[in-house]
Amino acid sequence: MLPLRISNATRVLAQARPGYHVLAIRDAPVDVAIEGGVQQANGMTSLWEPTPAELKMLNAGGSIQLTILGTVHPPVLMAVQPAPK
């Protein structure tokens, strides 16, 4: 997967980390369902584009793997975004 520049980015991560992809993110409030209601939390959204080889695997029934570095798994959201017009 290749990181894309997201519109209205509020931060860019890993600029000074050799060996890492620079990742533009957009911070925005996200409604999170909790027991007894809804709470707002900060969401950090980034965009990713599959390479042609990855797209071929996905079209053949493959799946997307998410790896979290560390020992505590934070809440995550994954979604598909339509292609830009």
Description:
- This protein is mainly beta and 85 residues long.
- 9% of the residues lie in helices and 35% in strands.
- It is globular.
What's the gist of this structure?
Helices cover 9% and strands 35% of the residues. It has 85 residues and is mainly β. The model has no long low-confidence stretch (mean pLDDT 91).
What is the strand and helix layout of this fold?
Elements: E1 2-4, E2 11-13, E3 23-34, E4 37-45, E5 47-49, H1 52-59
Antiparallel strand pairs: 1-5, 2-3, 3-4
Distance between the termini: 21 Å
Question: Would you report the number of β strands?
Answer: 5
- Overall spatial form: globular
Q: List low-pLDDT spans.
A: none
β content, as a range? 35-45%
Give the strand order of the largest sheet, numbering strands 1, 2, ... along the chain.
2-3-4
**Proportion of residues in helical segments:** under 10%
Count of helical regions:
1
Report Rg: 15 Å
Give the overall pLDDT as a whole number.
91
Would you tell me the structural class of the helices and strands? mainly beta
Mind describing the biggest β-sheet?
Answer: 3 strands, antiparallel
The ordered string of helix (H) and strand (E) elements is EEEEEH
